[in-house]
Automatic annotation (TrEMBL):
The protein's annotated pathway: Carbohydrate biosynthesis; dTDP-L-rhamnose biosynthesis
Listed EC numbers: 1.1.1.133
UniProt gene name: rfbD
Keywords annotated in UniProt: NADP, Oxidoreductase
Protein name, entry field: dTDP-4-dehydrorhamnose reductase
GO molecular function terms listed in the Swiss-Prot or TrEMBL record: dTDP-4-dehydrorhamnose reductase activity
Family: Belongs to the dTDP-4-dehydrorhamnose reductase family.
Native source organism of the sequence: Streptomyces brevispora
Function recorded in the entry: Catalyzes the reduction of dTDP-6-deoxy-L-lyxo-4-hexulose to yield dTDP-L-rhamnose.
Domain (RmlD-like substrate binding) ranges: 6-285
Amino acid sequence: MSPVWLVTGAAGMLGQDLLAALAHEDVTAVAADRTALDIADPARVRETFAAHRPAVVVNCAAWTAVDDAESQEDAALRVNGTGPAVLAEACREHGTVLLHVSTDYVFAGDGVRPYGEDAPTGPRSAYGRTKLAGERAVLETLPDTGYVVRTAWLYGAGGGNFVRTMIRLEGVKETLDVVDDQRGQPTWTADLAGRLVRLGRAALDGTAPAGVYHGTSGGETTWFGFSREIFRLLGADPARVRPTTSGASVRPAPRPAFSVLAHDRFAAAGIEPIRDWRTALGEAFPALFAAERP
C-alpha cells in the first residue's frame, strides 16, 4: 500500500502545486482545504488522522493576510500557531512526519547576508510572531520528525500573487512605481512543491534530519527588479517600471528590507536547492499569463 500524504491548505496556491507534484509519486494524496479541516480543532484533526493514517502531513494552511494580522493577531495565531501545534501533537501520536511551511517574516529583515537556518529570529510583525509560534510548536513537539520549511515571495498560477498582479497592471497602467529597497528571492510554488516532495521522501527514508530548511529560489532581487523582469517577459518596456521606496506607501505591517535565505540544509541532506529565480520565472510565465489574461 502506498503511503498517505495529507496536504492541509490544499486549495491554496502552494497546495495546488503540491498536489500536482504528488500525482506523479507512488503515494496516496489526501487534499484537505480549510472547509474540510480546521487544523486548530483537535477533534477534527483526530478524526482526519484516524480516517487516513497519514505517513506525511504537509501543512500549507496559513493566515497570510499580513496587514490584517496586525489588528487580528489572535485570529492569525489560531491558524499560524495553534493549528501547527495541534497537527504536531497528532503527528507525534501517530508517528507521522510533519512538513510545516513557514516564512521569512520570522526574521527581523535587517540582515546584509543570507539568513542561515540557524540564524536568530526576531519578527517585527504580528504575522511573523504567529508564524514563529507555529515553528516552535512543531520543532518542540517533533524533535525527530518535524520539518519547518521557510519560504518567501511565492507566486504561482493557482492564486493571486505579485506576478499575476504585474501582468494585469501592465495592460492598464502606463507606468508603475515599485519599491526598490526590499530584497528577496521570488519563488515559484511548483519549485517549492518539488522540494517538499523530495524532503518528505528523505524524511521517511531517514536521510534528511529533522529541523529547519529554507525553500526559496537562488539569486536575489528587489520588487523593482522583479517587476522589470516580468515586463521584459511580457515584451513590454521595463523602463515603464520606476523605482520607489517603502516609505512612499506605508502599510500596517512592516515589510522586511532583507529576506534573502541561505539553503545549506537542503544541500547537506543531498537535495539540490531551488534554481535561480529568473530561470524559474521564465518557465512559469506562460501559465501565469494564461491565468491572468485568459
